[in-house]
Amino acid sequence: MKHKFFYSFLAGVALLFSSTACTPEDESLPAPDLTAADLVEGKAYTIEIDQATNKVKMKSLLGSRYVTSWIHPQGIERKTSTEANIPFAGDYEIRFGVMTRGGIVYGEPYRFTLENTNGDLLTDPLWTYLTGGADQSKTWELDTKNLDLGAFTFMCAPMGWDKFTDGKTYTEADYPSYAEDGVDDPNWVWQAGAPDWLFGDAATTTATIESIHELTFDLINGANLTVNGQTKAFVMDPDRKTITMPAGLNWLGDRIGDSYFVDMVNIELVKLNEHVLGLKLIRNDGKGGNKDQRMVLCFVEKGWDGEWPVTGPSLSTVPPVLPEYKDLATDLFTIIGDDASYHATAVTYLLDSEQPYCLMEWDGTVKNGEGKVEGAWKKLSELYGTPACPAFSDDEFVMTMNRYTGYKEDSDGKFSIPYNAYGLAIEERLAQTEFTIEGNKIVFAREVTLLATTPDPVKGKEFTVFECNPENGTLVIGVPVAKDENGVANRYVCANLTVKSLGGGQAGPTVIAVNPEYLNCYIQDDHHYRLEVYNAFYDADGLYPVDVTKLRLKKGQTIKLAFRLPGITWTDGADPKVVFGHNFDDLAAFNWDSNDAGVFSNPSVSLNKDGVTEISLTNTTSGTLKFEGASCFSICIQQKGLVVSPLDADGNLDATVVKPEIVSLTIE
């Protein structure tokens, strides 16, 4: 799948630098000098571009006597040949150089255009760490609070990702020239924080550090960096661990001039995880080679408090794992209504009205509740309506699945061997075609087009089931459109389907009967009056005033309780508040604090002291909420200091005298 972000930028890196500033080695020059005019494509080098994968191969045609260099969109390399994998469509350039007696000479830029975006090159978790993920942005600020490495860390020249992420200990064998370069220890690192001499005197240094901008990286219509209101494109290479900053954008602020560091465009990554971004820069001390001081500028995610998850940062990933279903054949044909459920012989599906289709993408970095990386499929709902996932509608879509008994031919040529058969028909578009259910897949006898979506249709013979939930009446099935580096499908385009309501849909709300004999009413914590319809955590006798199996809210449904509370004399001006107590974590937070300002600081209604009060709860999640075994259904009413009579011995409303009247309990 080519993810089209309609993205274009010119990644021109026109920086010319001396060989001593760029690398630690000094090169001999046995070959004749060349000029910039000699360094042209086809004569001095070749460039091969694969528009299908966005792989760009660069190869020198000069002999081995020449030391050659490349400045390309993913960095600078001193190699004879190399390659770059560039995710985004756009205009780019490459410069080819050769070592001469006067330093490196570069030819004119070779310019080219990539026509498509290759989303397969964006699956590395470093993209999510840096930007927040597809169509997201993430802001970083200098680590002046020393939450990780601190703002500035000094280090030995060869150190990089291996040191600050992998934890390597450097020895003399790793850095034999350390003493010559003026370092006492090949493993020397100094987390200096923000030394007051770094940019001159203390006052200047403080002002300079305070002026360093926040960095906002995003994956919105390409890969972009926003600094101080300016937005320009950047390039990252997760394999090389490099970031190519936008040329002409002073991302460290105006107080740090272009000459303070050797190169502010081609940056090496030494650390990148959920909360920390470490960038390696070379301070331009004028000494050349390894004597120019290396340092890490450490940024942290804006708002991070320094606390890690249970297991700390991790770059480990797990390969895609498709959902499993114990009995998909049963789930596909189970219909749950308001009052009953049954195993149907036919189920009709409609398109989800809000989002008829979606992209499902594997994120191999997701951790479970114990901090273990196990990965997860994510529905990229936020992309719907963007160029990557254009809006789609098909008001006439009706798909019916049938199950019946088929018969296979026996050894005598008679069709007498029964088997479970399944068929599918799409109204006005597809006569019934048979299918089989194989694990988590629906496999059709011939190719089926469910949705003619763009850029990729939901079309194929084999459909993977990502969600089959009879409780919600939802079915999400799709076909692969992208693969990871190992050739395993990691992105699918899917149809979002919903079961057509029985009988064309219920005309009114579902009414739930309430037996007042089993209502549990009491004063909670010497504080408020509680009318308890159900509580999974205080099951004294198992007798409830309602059939708890019916306390089930599908997506978008609302449960409403209407009641009266007669026989109470309230104080003048009393305005007792009422809240709906529950334990659903995915809904708006509910505060169970029992102090006077606690529970009733939640969204509440005023009690109708002389009539009917209605209180409700709406399911705003994407799934079904079931009270049974999971949540309470408790109506909490203010009373302390607000009641004249009847009172108990503690001065609270006497719950043994006051009996609520339930007017109605409905789900709609």
Automatic annotation (TrEMBL):
Keyword Signal: yes
Signal sequence bounds: 1-23
Keywords attached to this entry: Signal
Superkingdom per UniProt: Bacteria
Protein name: Uncharacterized protein
Species assigned in the record: Duncaniella muris
